[in-house]
Amino acid sequence: MEFLHALTQYAFLQHALIAGLLAGVVCGIIGSFVVVRRIATISGAIAHFVLAGLGAARWLQVVHDQQWADPMLGAVVAALVAAVVIGLVSLRAGEREDTAIGALWAIGMAVGILFIARTPGYNEDLMSYLFGNVLLVGADDLKLMALLDLVVIGCCVTLFARLQAVCFDEEFARVRGIRVELDYLLLLSLIALTVVLLVSVVGIVLVIALLTLPAAIAGRFTSTLAGMMGLAALLSMAFTSIGLAVSYGPDLPAGATTIAIAGLAYVAVIGIGALRRSLSRRR
Amino acid sequence: MTGADPVIEITDLCYRFGGRHWVLDDVSLTIDRLDFASVIGPNGGGKTTLIKLLLGLLEPDRGTIKVLGTSPERARPRVGYLPQHATIDARFPIKVVDVVLMGRLGPRWPLGRFTLADKQAAGAILERVGLGGFERRSLAELSGGQRQRVLLARALAADPELLLLDEPAAGLDIKVEQDFFQLLGELNRAKTVVLVSHDLGFVSAFVKTVVCVHHTVDVHPTSELDGTTIQNLYGGDVRLVHHEHSVEGH
Fold first, then answer.
1. Distance between the two ends of chain B, CA-based, in angstroms?
2. CB-based contacts of B70: which residues, under 8 Å, 6+ apart?
3. Which of A165, A219, A227 is nearest residue B102 as measured by Cβ atoms?
4. I need a surface site. Which of A201, B41, B143, B171 has the fewest CB within 10 A?
5. Nearest residue of chain A to residue B76 (CA atoms)
6. Contact list, A155 vs chain B (CB under 8 Å)
7. How would you label A261-273 residue by residue, b for 16+ Cβ within 10 Å and e otherwise?
8. Distance between CA B142 and CA B17 in Å, rounded?
9. Considering chain B, what is the average pLDDT of its residues?
């Protein structure tokens, strides 16, 4: 109640709510690809590499007075670089893929922290990048987020059958004459853009949970990839909204609250499923 | 039908795994149109590698491969492929018809849109493999045998001239496997069939040629196949279960 009242009064809360909804839509769509294609680790590496972009942009802005260097822009560039590098590595390197992913994950963090250490306001920046601070999302950020939403959703709708085929059976898609490498790089790039959207809501460290948990829950109740995406999007939007509402009163971090709620929902769904199976076996 | 109408022509083929040990060494092989060839041999002997070379998914280190008179890559639109079942995630959330439609994807459908004709074709092929009315069913709820039929329908979706099937019967029980081979036998009237068989002793009555792969390749008509062949292939200590063959035309 207190939250609803505050929502009508404060623009920053309205922005936060809209940011959560914008992130939730793509999170459900792209998260479903991540879950069925089993590339959660790759998505985690892309997310952590984003810190390099955030740190570099913030450093350029504060220390060198380059106002064009918006941290969101830095995040987009870093995420896309990480997606392409990981994509090329995983298409070429085969068995050494996980080493490369781990390296990129850590290098991104290290570079980001070095830049942030050289920038005044060290602690606040780092904390909000790592764990998100959705209350800081401004009207300009919302415009960029809406644009990213349109790009990701547009690509997924037009290329759905291809992307589904590549996720289901990459080799067969290749035999059917599809340029599988291009589709895979495109998918990773879409993941990268989604990660950027999510970073402003829940932060780098927590991105992976919001990307996978709603999709994993949705996967238990749906029998098509499109259905999974729809349900996962609704769940993601519910989690970010409830997380914001619950965290407002006691002044908890919104990102962490959102993830805790998503995690509880996931555990509950898994638990109820297991309980029902064991009960039906006993009968 | 004369014998001089090869669908697969392999000459002096060599393939090394990771540039090290030879998987296939100096292989020459010809498969004629409307043949039904079963590829047998021990694990790691190169059966799947042979199939992937025929699909152009792997490049030979030496030698030439011609499929349907052209390169493996160019032949792909006219080839139907059923991969090993382990490569498919059985829990993937997808309807049967959407799996079959993947068989009609191609470079000409840059966006992967399907027409009504595609959907009707998919329905007809499902009917053909004995899964009429299964279009809207979820892949995850099907039995192993039904799932293999769906993948066969996907391989058939573009009406290929040549079917390459990698262990299509692995994990199926005997009755289901026999039905599956019956279906392949019917398809063989119009299409050349090459399948990798996991089960060495069992060679279906529909099989006309046996291709033994163990780094090298020997070809036998089924009528010639006996215990010595199998022993040579697997290095001796194999007990052969004798089957009643009813081979026609040899």
1. 14
2. none
3. A165
4. B143
5. A175
6. none
7. bbeebbeebeeee
8. 36
9. 81
Higher per-residue pLDDT: A243 or A94: A243
Amino acid found at A222: T
Q: Which residue has the tokens 């992130």?
A: A23
| Mean pLDDT score, A246-258 | 90
Q: Which residue's entry shows tokens 């790089």?
A: A185
Dihedral sign for Cα atoms in the order B224, B227, B231, B232: negative
Q: What share of chain B has pLDDT > 70, as a percent? A: 81
Amino acid type, A127: M
Interface residues of chain B, partner chain A, Cβ below 8 Å: 55, 57, 76-77, 79, 81, 83, 87-89, 91-95, 98-99, 101-103, 105-107, 109, 111-114, 138, 140-141, 154, 158
CB contact under 8 A, A225 and B92: yes
Q: Could you give all domains of chain A from N- to C-terminal order, each with its CATH number?
A: 2-132+140-282 (1.10.3470.10)
List pLDDT tens digits, range A106-146: 999 999 999 988 888 767 778 888 888 888 888 888 888 89
Q: A64 and A115 in contact (C-beta within 8 Å)?
A: no
Using CB atoms and an 8 Å cut-off, which of residues 216-235 of chain A contact chain B? 219, 222-225, 227-228
Q: What is the pLDDT of residue B249?
A: 37
| Residue of A86, A89, A71 whose CA lies nearest to A204 | A71
What pLDDT, on the 0 to 100 scale, is given for residue B247?
Answer: 41
Looking at chain A from residue 81 to 140, which residues have their Cβ under 8 Å from any Cβ of chain B?
none
**Unique residue bearing structure tokens 């040629």:** B209
> If pLDDT is split at 50, 70 and 90, which confidence band does A95 have?
low
CB A30 within 8 A of CB A190: yes
Where does B6-234 sit in CATH, by number?
3.40.50.300
> pLDDT (tens digit, 9 = 90+) per residue, B146-163?
898 899 999 999 889 999
What is the rounded distance in angstroms from the CA atom of residue A51 to the CA atom of residue A266? Answer: 27
Asked if pLDDT for residue A273 goes beyond 80, the answer is yes
Whole-number Å distance between alpha carbons of B194 and B164: 5
Beta-carbon-side half-sphere exposure of residue B119 (alpha carbons within 13 Å): 8
Q: Which helix (H) or strand (E) holds A47?
A: helix A40-63
**Under a CB-based contact definition with an 8 Å cutoff, are residues A261 and A243 in contact?**
yes
- Tokens 């999170």: give the residue: A27
A274's CB contacts (< 8 A; 6+ apart) are none
DSSP characters for B154-201? HHHTT--SEEEEESTTTT--HHHHHHHHHHHHHHTTTSEEEEE-S-SS
pLDDT, greater one: A132 or A83: A83
Which residues fall within 8 angstroms of residue A51, CB to CB, at 6 or more apart?
Answer: A78, A108, A109, A111, A112, A113, A129, A130, A204
Give the pLDDT band (50/70/90) at residue B114: confident
Q: Which residue has the higher pLDDT, A125 or B15?
A: B15
Those residues with Cβ within 8 angstroms of residue B149's Cβ, 6 or more apart along the chain or in another chain: B129, B130, B131, B180, B183
